[in-house]
Design brief:
The strands form three sheets. This protein has a five-stranded mixed sheet, sandwiched between helices. Strands 8-5-9 form a three-stranded antiparallel sheet, sandwiched between helices. Helix 3 packs across helix 11, helix 5 crosses helix 6 and helix 6 crosses helix 14. The longest helix is centred in the C-terminal third of the chain and has 19 residues. The chain is built from 16 helices and ten strands. The termini are far apart. It is α/β, with parallel strands linked by helices.
Length: about 325
């Protein structure tokens, strides 16, 4: 009888406004994986550290999972719900039969630089040399391939080898220590090395090379089940992208960049930041041109990738909604 009398009280408690509001306000836990540490992660770091995910009701956990293939495997198993990745991982997953979509892309151009040890001054001197990459057919490998194309070099013909070493920070240390001869590095890391006398042979930001910048990759299953959550994540990341680009935020953004890349020289960080800014999109639509460029390079190692229809690998609904509502333009306050 006592238990029966308590039922109306429990129902009243559960239906009270304060309880309902608390339940509605509970943040959604989302694990976001990334395969490496580079300046391209800036908008993600900004969204996390400036509380933009929390603002939109997302409890974002950023997880470093080294290597694109491992990142995709974690996405498929549900260890992570989203991958902050380039189109490389999306193309690779699709070629393996995984139904995956790219929702955003921070850029369609590359700001990375080909840097070599101080004794190498010309393209010809790269023949027979060792390049450091994170993985074969990963983003760093493709940046290297794009840079070599600019120099008229071909790895097989010119006996250029690729050594999987680690993320960009680790590659930079390996180049400085002489364990490799050259690498394509992101702006802050390349600036640090050129300041020590290392040679810069290609600046991809000054070429017409197209490549899909980092963005949200997700399985079709999660997209169908959690569209509201994904809309919130895309909104927070779009705000993070704007935060990173607004001049008033530069002091904070530089601190974020220096902390994550372990760069202590503020001048180097400033130069790298400016290089990175030059390639960023304001509206993070998935980059079809970038995906096609990555597809062309990846097909050299896996012909199956050439058969993929890149248009079927993107879903721009959330960015388009933000754009058409005027939300993105308001983030920049009319600045150009």
């Amino acid at each position: 009888m006592t238990k029966l009398r308590s039922i109306p009280f429990l129902m009243l408690l559960l239906c009270s406004p304060s309880t309902a509001l608390a339940a509605a306000a509970a943040p959604v836990r989302v694990n976001i994986g990334a395969a490496s540490v580079s300046s391209s992660m800036l908008s993600l770091w900004a969204a996390q550290e400036q509380g933009l995910f929390a603002k939109h009701g997302i409890d974002a956990q950023l997880i470093l999972i080294r290597g694109g293939s491992t990142l995709v495997a974690s996405l498929v198993t549900g260890e992570i719900q989203l991958a902050f990745t380039s189109g490389v991982s999306v193309l690779g997953a699709a070629a393996q039969g995984v139904d995956v979509k790219m929702l955003t892309s921070i850029s369609s151009r590359v700001s990375w630089k080909l840097v070599a040890n101080p004794q190498i001054k010309t393209a010809a001197e790269l023949r027979g040399k060792r390049f450091g990459v994170q993985s074969i057919v990963g983003s760093t490998w493709m940046y290297a391939m794009l840079a070599l194309e600019q120099l008229g070099l071909e790895p097989k013909r010119d006996n250029i080898s690729f050594l999987p070493i680690g993320d960009a920070v680790t590659i930079g240390h390996s180049l400085e220590a002489g364990r490799i001869d050259a690498a394509v590095l992101d702006p802050p890391l390349s600036r640090r090395l050129t300041g020590k006398g290392f040679s810069q042979l290609v600046d991809l930001a000054k070429t017409n090379a197209s490549f899909p910048g980092l963005g949200v990759g997700v399985t079709r299953n999660y997209l169908d089940q959690q569209p509201t959550t994904l809309e919130k994540v895309v909104t927070a990341l779009t705000e993070g992208l704007a935060f990173a680009q607004l001049p008033a935020n530069k002091p904070v953004v530089l601190k974020i960049l220096m902390k994550h890349l372990r760069v202590t020289d503020s001048v180097v960080a400033e130069d790298g930041y400016q290089d990175h800014l030059s390639t960023l999109n304001r509206k993070p639509y998935p980059s079809l041109d970038g995906l096609r460029s990555a597809q062309r390079l990846m097909a050299q190692q896996n012909p199956k990738i050439a058969t993929l229809k890149v248009e079927e690998l993107v879903d721009a609904r959330f960015v388009r909604k933000l754009d058409e509502s005027g939300f993105i333009d308001r983030l920049y306050g009319g600045q150009r």
